[in-house]
Design brief:
Length: 301
């Protein structure tokens, strides 16, 4: 009986990894096909580079799965997350994307805690819901953080769909938008993603396709949060959000990295360090250096 259980467990693990590798291969094939069809250049990685990309993507999935599995264990972040060197004037709110939850920011929040930043992560709820449902959840949590730290300006880090929900909320809540200092979006399909060109049904398509009416009516952050300094960070090898220009916004500081997948934006130590650098120390409430603009930058991982 024991040997059957072990064999069954091994078969489940093998099936899981097989599914993961198949999913990466399918999305990679669609990624290459779209760029070929549209005459778009792909930064070369070579055979070894793509093999490394596969391994790191699998490692990202395992890391995120571990964070999710242990999220309810009550493990504390380092003490500095509660009493950082910047005190209550520096609050970071993390917003997850589609098919994720607040646990996906565990690595970044640990990095921010070492920097002395107080951080929180929201849970937008189950996937495949209308964007208005996500917006209500984010509005509630953002208002809660703003009320708990009335003298603080709030920095926001949003991954993927989370950046769209942020734009939705800030467009409807100018008082909350006025509290935002810095915004960093990671692989957010601000202009949709070509991945959904073949899938034309459901809330996911209506929200994040390149033909999305929802996106067309979302106010740009330059209008809804004019006092915020916005950075859009994207990967040239993101197999889920492409072309890479779709993950950038006009009037934002635009950073493009290489050889990092969509999930790697959540787990990669280099990305964590870059986000921590972009957030830096908090500025004084009401002190505004220019919030938007700046040259596009290229950064390789």
């Amino acid at each position: 009986m024991e040997s059957r259980l072990v064999l069954g467990a091994l078969l489940l693990v093998a099936a899981y990894f097989g599914y993961v590798l198949l999913w990466i291969a399918v999305t990679q094939a669609r990624f290459f096909a779209w760029h070929r069809r549209n005459g778009s250049h792909i930064l070369p990685l070579g055979g070894l580079g793509w093999a490394s990309f596969y391994l790191r993507t699998v490692a990202s999935i395992l890391r995120l799965s571990w964070w999710w599995a242990t999220a309810s264990s009550g493990r504390p972040l380092p003490k500095s997350v509660r009493a950082g060197e910047f005190g209550p004037d520096a609050v970071v709110l993390c917003i997850h994307g589609f098919h994720m939850d607040e646990s996906c920011f565990w690595g970044l929040r640990k990095r921010l805690a070492r920097q002395g930043r107080t951080s929180f992560a929201v849970d937008l709820g189950l996937p495949y819901r209308k964007p208005e449902v996500y917006a209500r959840a984010l509005h509630r949590d953002l208002a809660t953080v703003a009320a708990a730290f009335p003298a603080a300006r709030i920095d926001v880090v949003a991954h993927s769909m989370g950046g769209l929900v942020l734009r939705h909320v800030l467009g409807e809540a100018p008082a909350l938008a006025a509290r935002i200092d810095r915004i960093v979006t990671l692989g957010t399909p601000h202009q949709g993603t070509a991945l959904l060109g073949w899938f034309r049904h459901g809330q996911v398509y209506r929200m994040m396709s390149r033909e999305s009416e929802y996106l067309r009516h979302l106010p740009p952050l330059a209008d809804s949060a004019p006092g915020a300094r916005v950075t859009t960070l994207a990967s040239a090898h993101d197999l889920l959000v492409y072309p890479v220009e779709c993950a950038h916004l006009e009037h934002a500081r635009r950073i493009t990295i290489e050889a990092v997948g969509h999930l790697g934006l959540l787990t990669d130590a280099g990305v964590h360090a870059r986000v921590a650098e972009l957030l830096g120390a908090p500025s004084a409430l009401g002190a505004g250096e220019a919030g938007h603009g700046g040259p596009e930058q290229q950064h390789s991982q």
